Amino acid sequence: MVINEALIWNLLTEVPDPEVPAINVVELGVVRSVEIKQEAVCITITPTYTGCPAMKTIEQDIIQRLKEAQIIDIEIKTILTPAWTTDWIKEEAREKLRVYGIAPPEHSSADKNSILGKTKTINCPLCGSRDTIMQSQFGSTACKALYKCKSCLEPFDYFKCI
Amino acid sequence: MTELNKAVFEFCLRLGDSSLIIGHRLSEWCGHGPVLEEDIALINIALDHIGRSRNLLTYAGQVEGKNRTEDDLAYHRNERQFRNLLLTEFPNTDFAYTIARQFFFDTYSFFLYQDLKNSKDETIAAIAEKALKEITYHLRHSSEWMLRLGDGTKESKDKIQNAVNALWRYTGEMFMMDQVDEFLLNEGIALDMNKVKLKWEEKVSDVLNRATLYKPADVYMQEGSKKGLHTEHLGFLLAEMQYLPRTHAEAKW
């Protein structure tokens, strides 16, 4: 088997985000680069949030997927800069999030001036209504906020912009 | 260690310890939050703080060059070796205390990290850029609570005003500079905290005003953290936080 970058990227698309399994780690934008030196593979990842408990799992899942493909010599590097941003989640992945029931990030990364700003209006991913209200800025994970739809009365997660 | 490394080590301990200790305080709310959403919010914020602290303490260990890891620094130092701001170790007391403490600290962090993004130290700059995104949400959270509590019922107003008054004397320390700060300022790594202070005061005054709260009069400002002198609360906090790794040295999750 010839190890090349395309193969590795392909394998990485088979590693789901442990907390949002609807999208994979490449679509999420946490994989920053893949380098190959002879047989050794070096993958650089960046955390979504500094305290994100999923990062360790992502690392292990990547290693496991590559090992299944008989790639043994793997190094995972974590970098902080450039800082991860929701802007890196591609359009197609945003749609996957919505179908999964998570409202995708609606705007470009966090508006620093809106520290005391108004709550953003978010489309309900389930019924599409815009009549929704934020329940909490912090949802089931640090990257999500909790919303409620006043039309279909369902609660839903919103993937926050950062 | 070179003089520069010594100063950077010290600086990272100050930032990292403050984050660690306030993160621990917030995590004490787990299962005790006033409503479920708030319980989750406080824990999520705690997680951000602990994550930030991990980055800073890991870097401190690297700069120090004695092979100390983030865990060594977090769990195997004594009270006098901690450099966190006194404010961060203040007990939760009640929800109003937690929010006032958080609001003062978030505002400070917001303006501090906003400028640290441009630090000449690349690692500090990278951590700051990352942290700032999270701090923006924290500050919004604590600011909104200040407004709700201050402009709420008589009871909530009294409680938040009491907390503001009680914690005020611990805010001055955030902006006091010593030789380490001066040295790093000249190196382009740290900031002139007097400038951060001005922005902090403006923002705090604005929120207190909108929350119909009054700003406490000038009082004597407590200090000591840069010399490892803490309030009586830190020892108890460390006893709890460090118990497990000190008792079971080989413990793994």
Molecular structure report:
The complex is a heterodimer of chains A (162) and B (253). Chain A has 162 residues and is α/β, with parallel strands linked by helices. Chain A contains four helices and seven strands, in the order ααββαβαββββ. In chain A, the strands form two sheets. A four-stranded mixed beta sheet of chain A has the order 4-7-6-5. In chain A, a hairpin with a 7-residue loop joins strand 5 and strand 6 (144-149). Chain A is elongated. Chain A starts with a helix and ends with a strand. The two termini of chain B are 33 Å apart. Chain B is mainly α and 253 residues long. In chain B, helix 5 crosses helix 9. Chain B has helices spanning 3-27, 36-64, 70-75, 86-89, 95-116, 122-150, 154-168, 179-186, 193-210, 233-247. Chain B is globular, with a radius of gyration of 18 Å. The chains are: A alpha/beta (162), B mainly alpha (253). The interface between A and B is medium-sized, with 31 and 34 residues.
Write the layout of secondary structure elements.
The complex is a heterodimer of chains A (162) and B (253).
Chain A lengths: L4 H8 L12 H4 L2 E7 L2 E6 L8 H15 L5 E5 L12 H10 L1 E2 L28 E5 L7 E6 L5 E5 L3
Parallel strand pairs in A: 2-3, 4-7
Antiparallel strand pairs in A: 1-2, 5-6, 6-7
Chain B lengths: L2 H25 L8 H29 L5 H6 L10 H4 L5 H22 L5 H29 L3 H15 L10 H8 L6 H18 L22 H15 L6
Helix pairs in contact in B: 1-2, 1-8, 2-6, 5-6, 5-7, 5-9, 6-7
Termini Cα gap of chain A: 40 Å
Give the topology string of chain B: H per helix, E per strand. HHHHHHHHHH
Share of helix of chain A, binned: 10-25%
Secondary-structure element pattern of chain A, one letter each = HHEEHEHEEEE
- Radius of gyration of chain A over all CA atoms, rounded: 18 Å
Please, how many helices of chain A? 4
Question: What count of helical segments of chain B does DSSP give?
Answer: 10
